[in-house]
Amino acid sequence: MDSFGQTTPFSANPLRTKADLANFLTDLLDPLAAHTSPGGARIHLGHTATHYDEAAAQLEGFSRPIWGLASLLAGGGEYSGTQRWVDGFTNGCDPAHEEFWGDMRHKDQRMVECSAIGFSIAVAREKLWDPLTPEAKANVERWLGGMNDKEMPNTNWLWFRVFANLGLAKAGSARFDPQRMKADLDHLDTFYIGDGWSRDGPEGVVQLDYYSSSFAIQFAQLAYSKIQTKEDPVRCEEYRNRARQFALDFVHYFDAEGRAIPFGRSLTYRFAMSSFWGALAFADVDLPAPLTWGVVKGIQLRNIRYWAKQAGAYYPDGTLTIGYCYPNHNMTENYNSPGSPYWCCKSFVSLSLPETHPFWASEEEPYPSSLLNVTKALKHPLHIATNLAGHAYILSSGQQCSYPVKQGPAKYGKLAYSSAFGYSVPVGSGTLEELGGDSTLALSDDGGETWKCRRDTREARFEGPAPGWLRSMWYPWKDVQVETWLVPPTDAAPLWHLRVHRIRTGRQLTSAEGAWAIYGQRKDGRALEPVEGEEFGTMADGGAARAASKAGVSGIVDLGGQARKGTALRTDANTNLMVARAVLPTLMGEHEPSEQDIWLVAAVFGLPSIEDREGAAEGWTEEWKKRPSVPEEISVLIK
């Protein structure tokens, strides 16, 4: 019965060829027919709400699958349900039709959906534009062009207007505004900060999550460089150059099994994370070593294969749920409608390529061996990436969303993020179990009634010999300062990373420092219990805590002499993004107000299971016995 309810409608698809990928897309598009309005312009997938209106939410359900459909059609493929979207263009843009999407206003969600529509006209005009009547074309042109005089957020959103104008240009529309498009592109280029990286906004924004890559900016730059290479050759070549540089950093956010590191917002877009790799192929970028087309193909397809197997990502009819590895509204944003997850359809962009393209013609290759067992400082996102412990993870300090976002401290402020263990979000504001305090130092000044976690990280910087460590400040209360050092693993202790905190407090504090959250059930499905040895279970022994299950091992040890006590905390259900039932090894401490520095030093252990194996590899207990060393430069400060 272990497999009951744990398969998806796509599990049998090997997802290795262009035909396999086209079949997967078809299998995602077909279930949408039952949720499509009679006129084709709206797709209604559920009753949960967003900060924008319901018509815009149903437009989102209509538009986002077009990323995949347009790519399929552009690559010579066919889809029997294409007419649904042709009808949707006709009726959604018709002010006299009951399914009219509504005209755009300033900073309107409808603007977001224009990017997919513009892209579809630009790359699949013969199948999606040419069948429209002259009246319908005029309505689409008027609707898309309606955003050219509207105010937009000063973020990646400006790309959406660029693609609306691209679509108008390729349709030969008089509504195309070349001056508006050039001004938007020139402004978007001011977001560029070097080495291939762009921030998601103007100077002062410290937000370099997946919007800087697959979700928006890099993908858009690459798509633009393909579509406009003749019209704007200098800018297009610059975008390709940026992608070449960026790829050598971005590859570290993926592991050898195809998983990407969950970090930041909009993670319900799921395998949109890997769309950058398909966009590299779409734009015919000359790849930098050690990347080859076989490697790029492998990264992309392994990521899609991983998601095709995640049962909780889909309803039984094959439509996508809101969440990550399972339905989870705790981790979503105020802008996630039931149609939002279909942003993942960007990852079908490789379907636009012919079979002869090296992306498809090359044999799939594994993750480059030269990039395994390495640690690398990523200067611009303020991350240290490593895969020494059998999973890709980042140590993180210095990023935060530039505006209030739900669960912001969990999405940007945690100390580490893992491709295997994910991260957790609060499900309430009371108990520590509700907090989901993995990979964070949580503080309470009311005896555990409420908790604060790092959100606004200040003065973040790299220090020490390469790859170095991260050092930063956090000010949870006016009379409390927390300075943190995050030290990556070493060859001597590859399954551990170090955290050092210097606390100065004018009030009494309770602290809770969490390791990785891990699947919290035994082989029989019951909750983990305390055990000895290597069997699945938990351990709490003085200043240490550990949990072992079929997902691997997570643990934390106090090295600072602060008499913190270890506990294997069973977090509330649905806190972790990847597993709905989790255990969190945690160190608990009590700290009196003091004019003296309070030093907390913790070593965090993590070893996930590998594909097709339950539990961590044999011999992990020997690695557990090791302890990492505090760098001398930090030891001097402690002493």
TrEMBL record:
- InterPro entries linked to this entry: DUF2264_C, DUF2264_N, UCP014753
Domain (DUF2264) spans 17-367, 375-634
From the record, what ranges are coiled-coil?
Answer: none
- What is this protein identified as? DUF2264 domain-containing protein
* UniProt organism field: Roridomyces roridus
